[in-house]
Design a protein that fits this description.
The complex is a heterodimer of chains A (303) and B (369). Chain A is mainly α. Chain A has helices at 2-27, 35-53, 56-80, 85-104, 129-133, 138-156, 158-168, 170-176, 180-206, 218-228, 233-256, 262-286; strands at 117-119, 135-137. Chain A has a single domain (2-290), classed as ABC transporter involved in vitamin B12 uptake, BtuC. A two-stranded antiparallel ribbon of chain A has the order 1-2. Chain B has 369 residues and is α/β, with parallel strands linked by helices. Chain B has eleven helices and 14 strands. Chain B has helices spanning 2-26, 47-62, 78-89, 103-112, 137-151, 166-180, 199-211, 225-233, 261-272, 308-322, 350-353; strands at 32-37, 66-71, 94-97, 117-121, 130-135, 156-161, 187-192, 216-220, 236-241, 252-258, 288-291, 298-300, 333-334, 340-342. A six-stranded parallel beta sheet of chain B has the order 2-1-3-4-5-11, with helices on both faces. In chain B, strands 7-6-8-9-10-12 form a six-stranded mixed beta sheet, with helices on both faces. In chain B, strand 1 (32-37), helix 2 and strand 2 (66-71) form a beta-alpha-beta unit. The radius of gyration of chain B is 23 Å and the shape is globular. In chain B, 51% of the residues are buried. Classes of the chains: A mainly alpha (303), B alpha/beta (369). Chains A and B meet through helix 1, helix 11 and helix 12 of A and strand 7, helix 7 and helix 8 of B.
Chain lengths: 303, 369
């Protein structure tokens, strides 16, 4: 049971990170559909860095930087050149899929050391809970720290409130004198940073090798998670764990021979996503305030 | 006037290109154009990589006499039809479509281009210009079963399958036959990934198997993820399609390696000599190449990470299949519900293998669907 919970957590972390980053970007009014592409860049960047520098921690940094690089490309187009965000985001994913395939070609067939587990003194000795909560790798702790940080940031800090203001009404924010474009740049790059680390987690912990398109659609699920969480950070943890839980539960069901067709079980995570999305959009029509009002709209102001 | 000139010009350009096309195609001694359609990229280090190695053997053998075009990352379905048609249009004389899901698209395009030869890998439908090629993967699975049966301590084997189709099921059953020949107490539980390729999902399935107590893992999916998990968690397993020992130096017991090169070379040679055929109708069965250990289409890598006596027994099983002494699906065969499939003294024929939709004794659960 313990091993299964650990597997669920490990499966959830890339989703958790990517969704958290996207949440911040969307809160500032930027809808970046390039999450999948940024995750792939993070994965290939991390693997390359670890092969080169032989230390998995550099992989996290390299993954983050690769994600930020992709996010910058997106920002230049959508924020400075005011292109359509949906089209540019899709383009970014397609571009990154090709680019990572090319960049990853020399990495094929190589394997890297995994991120070590960090045991927290004494706490990790608590039965069951200890090894689940306090014997994780650095990125797992980091992702929880990021969620806690942005929860407070969005709610209580002045910068967080400005960020939300920009996402809700960029015209008003602009007329009060806030630099809308600059703030969106930062938010999008933070999204890239998180997605990059999330992507890096796949080769650093889950499957320590490079293979093309290895994120296999997790970026899209991260996008759905943001809506599932209705733009509230802590709900992303719940959503990611539910998704990871169902994914693993269907595998366990097969191994134990539960009399449910495996195809149906494989569908479960996606059905859960659709149900969650429908439930939330039902609620949205009643109370529209959770969606950042300027989401996806380009800002035509001067800065 | 300008418009008129443009028209004349484009007409000339068009006719020259048509002429050039005709000339270049009929020119004697021109290289044979060969097309390949890949499901993923050689970067999967599994299924497609094995085809890539086969393609490289073709290029080495024929040199300037062939011109090879490859299309990678072709999804199974309507996209495949488009890609195969494009390859046929470009004048490829023989096209190898290297995944099961290309079966219908291949047949469809073959009807449109009766002069182009098609070789569909792992399919079971043939036509006048579609032949099929496959490897008796299950022979390698039998040896895996022998090794697994001898190496397991928990008597639990975890098996990861892609889709519940006959090809994968016969592999599981062959594995069970090998396992039972040395160990009556072990059993196999199967997780279907419902994908050929998703490293993270394959890794998850491996973790679940290990958490459920399995100590030997086998896979019928494409990435090395399962073996990497085995390596990390102290379990052992078998490489798929190519030698994966680089990913799991301590965990790989051996790998069944797909060796497509000789088959590709043979078929291209036949085409060049005008001898290519799919056999006679209605089934064109002789046009089906289904080679295994005997014809070296399936190769077994070095036995490693196992005691000498286990390796010896594995070698014995390998030799037995090669020289025909071991018939993997010889009766009496009993399925896992206790129903007799075939009595003693008889054996399943190739056709029966392709109709497998049941697990033999030794496998837990039920075939989905």
């Amino acid at each position: 049971m313990e091993a299964l919970i650990l597997t669920i957590i490990a499966t959830s972390i890339p989703l958790l990170l990517a969704a958290t980053g996207e949440l911040i970007a969307e809160k500032s009014g930027v809808l970046n559909l390039g999450v999948e592409g940024m995750m792939l860049s993070g994965a290939v960047g991390a693997l390359g860095a670890v092969l080169w520098l032989e230390n998995p921690y550099y992989g996290i940094v390299a993954g983050a930087l690769s994600g930020v690089l992709m996010a910058s490309i997106f920002s230049i187009f959508t924020i400075n050149f005011m292109t359509n965000q949906v089209a540019t985001g899709l383009g970014l994913t397609i571009f990154a899929t090709g680019l990572t395939g090319l960049a990853g070609a020399p990495l094929v067939g190589k394997t890297i050391p995994s991120l070590p587990k960090i045991e927290i003194f004494l706490l990790s000795d608590i039965p069951i809970f200890g090894s689940i909560l306090f014997k994780q790798d650095f990125v797992a702790y980091l992702s929880i720290a990021i969620i806690i940080f942005i929860s407070f940031f969005l709610k209580y800090s002045k910068s967080g409130i400005i960020l939300r203001a920009v996402g809700d009404d960029h015209q008003s924010a602009h007329s009060v004198g806030y630099p809308v474009k600059k703030i969106r740049w930062y938010a999008t790059c933070f999204g890239g940073l998180c997605a990059g680390i999330g992507g890096a987690y796949i080769p650093l912990v889950l499957t320590p090798h490079w293979s093309e398109g290895m994120t296999a659609g997790r970026g899209w699920i991260a996008l759905a998670l943001v809506v599932f969480a209705s733009w509230i950070p802590w709900r992303i943890i719940v959503g990611a764990l539910i998704f990871g839980g169902i994914t693993i539960a269907q595998l366990v069901g097969q191994a134990r021979g539960w009399p449910i067709p495996s195809q149906l079980l494989s569908m479960m995570p996606y059905i859960a996503t659709i149900i969650a999305l429908t439930m939330i959009s039902g609620r949205l029509s009643k109370n529209n305030s959770v969606v950042p009002a300027s989401l996806g709209k380009p800002f035509f102001g001067s800065q | 006037m300008i418009k008129f000139c443009m028209r004349i010009f484009s007409l000339i350009a068009l006719s020259t290109s048509v002429l050039f096309f005709l000339v270049s195609n009929s020119f004697a001694g021109s290289p044979t154009k060969v097309g390949f359609v890949y499901l993923t990229t050689p970067g999967d280090h599994g299924w497609t990589y094995a085809h890539e190695l086969g393609k490289q053997m073709v290029e080495k053998r024929f040199g300037k006499d062939v011109k090879v075009s490859v299309v990678e990352n072709v999804p199974e379905g309507p996209d495949a039809t488009r890609v195969i048609r494009e390859l046929a249009k470009q004048g490829n004389e023989i096209i190898f479509t290297t995944s099961f899901g290309y079966m219908e698209p291949t047949l469809k395009v073959a009807k449109e281009f009766p002069n182009v030869k098609f070789e569909h890998i792992t399919g079971y439908k043939r036509s006048k210009n579609v032949a099929t090629g496959n490897i008796r993967f299950y022979e390698g699975r039998y040896i895996q079963g022998v090794v697994a049966g001898l190496m397991t301590k928990s008597n639990k084997i975890g098996y990861i399958g892609a889709y519940p189709i006959a090809e994968v099921i016969m592999g599981i059953n062959a594995f069970a036959q090998g396992m039972k020949s040395v160990n009556k107490n072990a059993s196999i539980s199967v997780i279907w990934a419902n994908t050929w390729y998703d490293p993270v999902k394959e890794a998850d399935a491996a973790k679940v198997h290990i958490a459920e107590g399995a100590d030997i893992l086998a896979q019928h999916t494409d990435s090395p993820a399962m073996l990497q998990i085995a390596e990390k968690k102290g379990a052992m397993g078998f490489g798929q399609s190519t030698d994966m020992s680089a990913f799991a130096p301590k965990a790989q017991l051996f790998a069944s390696i797909n060796n497509w090169g000789p088959y590709y070379i043979k078929k291209i040679e036949e085409l060049r000599n005008g001898k290519w055929n799919t056999g006679d109708g209605p089934n064109h069965w002789p046009g089906n190449v289904w080679g295994g250990l005997k014809s070296d289409m399936l190769v077994i890598s070095k036995f490693q990470n196992m005691p000498a006596d286990v390796a010896q027994k594995a070698q014995k099983a390998l030799d037995g299949i090669r020289n025909g002494k071991i018939n993997i699906f010889a009766g009496p065969l009993i399925d896992n519900t206790g129903k007799e499939i075939i009595p003693a003294g008889k054996a399943l024929d190739d056709g029966a293998l392709w109709g497998m939709n049941y697990y033999l004794k030794g496998v837990n659960g039920k075939v989905p669907g």
